[in-house]
Amino acid sequence: MKALTFNYNIPKYLLTGALSRRWPQVISSSWALTGVREVPEPELPGSQWVKIKPKLTGLCGSDLSIMRCKESLTLQPFASFPFIFGHEVCGEIAEMGEAVEGFEVGERVTVMPSLGCVPRGIKPLCPMCVQGRNQLCYNFTEGSLAPGMFVGSNADVAGFISEMGVAHQSMLCKVPEGVSDENVALTEPFATTLHMVAANAIEPGETVLVFGCGAMGLCTIAGLKALHPEVRILAVEPDPFHSGVAHEMGADEVIPPGGKKFYRRIAELTGAKMYTPLGTKPILIGGVDRVFDAVGTTDTIEASLRILDNGGSFNLLGIGAPKGLDWTPVWLKELTLRGIYGAQQEEAHGGRRHTFDLALRLYAEGKVDIGHMVTHRFRLDDWREALEAASAKGKSKAIKVAFTP
Ligand SMILES: [Zn+2]
Ligand SMILES: [Zn+2]
How far is the CA of 188 from the centre of ligand 1 (A)? Predict the structure, then answer.
């Protein structure tokens, strides 16, 4: 079968990482680590596993960062190679192991991609998996599977940018009828942003700011509108097309980043005092209550810390590998910093539930429809065009690039 694979080797990784800024096409060049290759169809890793035929699979920003060889080397122990990309899937069960219960061949599903204790056959479960926080499992390098935190970074678990992937039955989510394939394929990124929103004790009347209006930033806006319609949402985005979409999805104001003008506008909108120190960027006293940073670069983190209200919360979702930050605002304003990764069981929307279930429920109730965010679709053979559209989002007007096998 065909699959988009990543064949790690250290010299190529370092070289690609060094070249990818000046030569973006290096990630799909003929010697790149990434490529659509012919591989054997996956075997079921155990009797509680199913094969899933993907209908629509999203390409994630984290996939691109791996392809560009820009992902932090810190993560290397928590992956195994070669692997098949793809963890944002709408697919159909094609085959089931003999111990699978409660599902049928042909059923439409999406997949919670974390490979925690249960899919690894580890008993007793670690304290994180007991709490339904499988994305923080202690055992990502243990048990019956190769190291790897999620489907799409694990040599033993075929990902879904392919003609066939696999999942443990505990990772499957049934999909309510009437929910579009596009919404289903966006469940993983949307559920992650719902986890971020739910992890914050947001009060009515707050002003929250979303950094970046790519797929994750826009999902965050959709989640805020669904769970906290009473908050004021500011968004920061340089690209006019993505700014327009953020507006349509409910951002009260979309501000371009950069310069004193940016800080002045936030100060005006929040009634904060702006100070302009010599030789560095402005800082606000007062400001936005929370930042949801879906970019995570030096610039976005630095600006976030400077525009947050005293006692405010910064949430890091983006994986932009920042360097050389001035952390002064963190102690000066007693900010809270929180990292966000994946989805989990949560107190949200009047009950304790997994944010995957919450996402599917919000779709089914008609409260959220983000299917329009799937702007580009490609066949596996056209993977080079797909990577190009996803890499040059301003030019291509891409929000979520997806594959149909
Ligand atoms: Zn993702
Ligand atoms: Zn665990």
Answer: 7
Phi, psi for residue 374 in degrees, rounded to 5: -80, 95
> 346 CA to middle of ligand 1, Å?
19
Q: Name every residue whose Cβ is closer than 8 Å to that of residue 34 and which is 6 or more positions away in sequence.
A: 4, 5, 6, 27, 28, 67, 85, 387
DSSP class of residue 239 equals: -
Q: Which ligand is nearest to the CA of 342?
A: 1
CATH of 199-341, one of 3.40.50.720, 3.40.50.1970, 3.40.50.300, 1.10.3720.10: 3.40.50.720
What architecture is domain 2-113+150-186+370-403? Alpha-Beta Complex (3.90)
Question: Can you give the pLDDT at residue 371?
Answer: 98
Give residue 221 CA to ligand 2 midpoint distance, Å: 30
Mean pLDDT of the chain: 96
Are the beta carbons of 173 and 72 closer than 8 angstroms?
no
- The pLDDT of residue 193 is 98
pLDDT in tens, 337-356: 999 999 999 998 888 999 99
Ligand located closest to 132 CA: 2
Residue 218's H or E segment, with its range, is helix 215-227
Name the residue ranges covered by the structural domains of the chain: 2-113+150-186+370-403, 199-341
Six token digits for residue 24:
């973006």
Instruction: For residue 41, report the distance from its CA to the centre of ligand 2, in Å.
Output: 28
Low-confidence stretches of the chain (pLDDT beneath 50): none
337 alpha carbon to ligand 2 midpoint, in Å?
A: 24
Cα(117) to centroid(ligand 2), Å: 4
Closest-lying ligand to the alpha carbon of 136?
A: 2
Measured in Å, residue 262 CA sits from the centre of ligand 2 at 43
The pLDDT value recorded for residue 201 is 96
| Ligand in nearest proximity to the CA of 340 | 1
Q: How far apart are CA 188 and CA 296, in angstroms?
A: 19
